[in-house]
Design a protein that fits this description.
Pyridoxal 5'-phosphate (PLP)-binding protein, which is involved in PLP homeostasis. The chain is built from nine helices and eight strands.
């Protein structure tokens, strides 16, 4: 099946439930993204800053770019002019940098707090208590150029669907609590980003509002090393 056919299948299934489909285009060539765009897709997710910057410059301006991978503070400035949503915010320091760079472009950048829900070692993600601590940080109310619109989580990489469902369910319960405690009057706080190709159906059942699907749409990923003009500093 073509990219357009794959995309149509997922859009019909996912969007009929009111869930946003993020086409994960990392390592995919511009031509493949354009095929998905021409088939009606507008939201694309990348996990590397330099790759997203390069593609954004070559593709239609109305694409909504989501940064779904871990974001280093020294790379925020490169995506601040255009990124629509940053999924993996895992520290007040990163949030402060996003705010700083967004202000330079007179923008408000939407962010999701990444919550650690998997039963496996990972470098990234906030514990439930750390999310509360971040939202209570005295500097948080001063950040006028960011907007926290929800939470993101990645389930354990396992075939145990019951465990995956429990992890997604716990995040939804936590989301509901955070909504009441910190965002009761904020209509923008409504997103739960969980679910990928292998577990998106479970994620939707457990309250996900956006799912990230890549290889099932685009086919096997093309491994390409993007030459970056972005320095490490």
């Amino acid at each position: 099946m073509s990219i357009a056919d794959n995309l149509k299948q997922y859009k019909n299934e996912v969007e009929s439930d009111g869930v946003k489909l993020i086409a994960v285009s990392k390592t995919q060539p511009v031509e493949s993204i354009l095929e998905a765009y021409n088939a009606g897709q507008r939201i694309f997710g990348e996990n590397l800053v330099q790759e997203m910057v390069e593609k954004q410059a070559q593709l239609p301006a109305d694409i909504e770019w989501h940064l779904i991978g871990h974001l280093q503070t020294n790379k925020v400035k490169y995506i601040a002019p255009f990124v629509q949503l940053i999924h993996g915010v895992d520290s007040i320091k990163l949030l402060q940098e996003i705010n700083k760079q967004a202000a330079k472009h007179n923008r408000i950048i939407d962010c999701l707090l990444q919550v650690y829900i998997a039963d496996e070692d990972t470098k990234f993600g906030l514990g439930f208590d750390e999310v509360v601590e971040l939202l209570r940080d005295e500097t948080y109310p001063e950040l006028k150029n960011i907007r926290i619109v929800g939470l993101m989580g990645i389930a354990t990489n396992t075939k145990n669907e019951k465990q995956i469902a429990i992890e997604f369910h716990e995040l939804k319960v936590f989301f509901d609590g955070i909504k009441v405690s910190f965002f009761r009057k904020d209509e923008a706080f409504k997103e739960i980003s969980t679910g990928m190709s292998a577990d998106y159906k479970i994620a939707i059942e457990e309250g996900s509002t956006m799912v990230r699907i890549g290889s099932s749409i685009f086919g096997k990923r093309v491994i390409k090393h993007f030459k970056s003009n972005i320095s490490a500093n």
